[in-house]
């Protein structure tokens, strides 16, 4: 981002957040779906995202597209995976330099859909969302807050892991991306004993410790049940991600009563 305009850019992103906030209770209007099915879909999409080596931004954007679409339209269980891969396709077209082909996405779905079905779903989703694609990605906020701790790599990697874990659970839907980013970095710093949530961190995040506490509490509860986010745990257990998920789980075992 252009340093000269960084403050204005983040003010603009914060203003955008309410426009991209899904209905946190949308499952009440879905007839054949449940929150557990959403969790399974997200966990699978994490695998798809990882196999295609897509940017982290693409994953967060794809899940936001799914949630916003399901907030406005009733979808059957047999079409849920189609909504998932199509949302990932749309997000990849926006975020990636090289986007995987429709054929690749169909292959990941075991050939369950035709190219025409995906194209039709793509057009329909974009129409329902009125082509609003300027999503204020939580990773943008994380980068901003990381300036306050000199971009500590381990802290930021744990925060990224926690942010991906948050995608699994619908209880994070009421929180804006900036608050999830702040809560994730707060917990990451706490796990690594990086000190208090000081005035500098409050300034760059826009949130006090009290304001991030609800996010932190849900994260800790989810982390106590790693079976809910197996794909994310496996992904972050690799050397590429500094085996962060193993470090976090070790911290949980030592510090949290299950």
Automatic annotation (TrEMBL):
Residues in Cyclin C-terminal domain copies: 136-250
Transmembrane annotation, as ranges: none
Pfam short name (any one): Cyclin_C
Organism, as annotated: Basidiobolus meristosporus CBS 931.73
Residue stretches making up the Cyclin-like domain: 43-127, 140-221
Ranges in a coiled coil: none
CDD domains in alphabetical order: CYCLIN_CLBs_yeast_rpt1 (cd20568), CYCLIN_CLBs_yeast_rpt2 (cd20512)
PANTHER family linked to this entry: CYCLINS
Xref: InterPro entries: Cyclin (IPR039361), Cyclin-like_dom (IPR013763), Cyclin-like_sf (IPR036915), Cyclin_A/B-like (IPR046965), Cyclin_C-dom (IPR004367), Cyclin_N (IPR006671), Cyclins_cyclin-box (IPR048258)
Source species, domain of life: Eukaryota
Family that this chain belongs to: Belongs to the cyclin family. Cyclin AB subfamily.
GO BP: cell division; mitotic cell cycle phase transition
Identification of the protein by name: Uncharacterized protein
GO MF, one annotated term: cyclin-dependent protein serine/threonine kinase regulator activity
Keywords associated with the record: Cell cycle, Cell division, Cyclin
């Amino acid at each position: 981002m252009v340093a000269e305009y960084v403050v204005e850019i983040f003010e603009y992103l914060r203003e955008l957040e309410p426009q991209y906030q899904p209905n946190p209770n949308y499952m009440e209007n879905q007839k054949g779906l449940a929150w557990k099915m959403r969790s399974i879909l997200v966990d699978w999409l994490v695998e798809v995202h990882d196999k295609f080596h897509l940017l982290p931004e693409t994953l967060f954007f794809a899940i936001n597209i799914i949630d916003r679409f399901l907030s406005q339209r009733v979808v059957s269980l047999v079409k849920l995976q189609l909504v998932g891969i199509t949302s990932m396709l749309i997000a990849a077209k926006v975020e990636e330099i090289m986007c995987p082909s429709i054929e690749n996405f169909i292959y990941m779905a075991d050939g369950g859909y035709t190219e025409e079905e995906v194209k039709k779903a793509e057009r329909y989703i974009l129409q329902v969302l009125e082509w609003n694609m300027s999503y204020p990605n939580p990773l943008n906020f994380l980068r901003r807050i990381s300036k306050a701790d000199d971009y500590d790599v381990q802290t930021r990697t744990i925060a990224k892991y926690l942010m991906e874990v948050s995608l699994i659970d619908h209880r994070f839907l009421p929180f804006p991306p900036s608050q999830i980013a702040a809560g994730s970095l707060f917990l990451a710093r706490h796990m690594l004993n990086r000190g208090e949530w000081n005035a500098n961190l409050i300034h760059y995040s826009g949130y006090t410790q009290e304001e991030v506490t609800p996010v932190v509490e849900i994260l800790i509860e989810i982390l106590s049940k790693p079976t809910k986010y197996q794909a994310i745990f496996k992904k972050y257990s690799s050397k590429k991600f500094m085996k962060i998920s193993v470090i976090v789980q070790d911290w949980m075992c030592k510090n949290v009563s299950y």
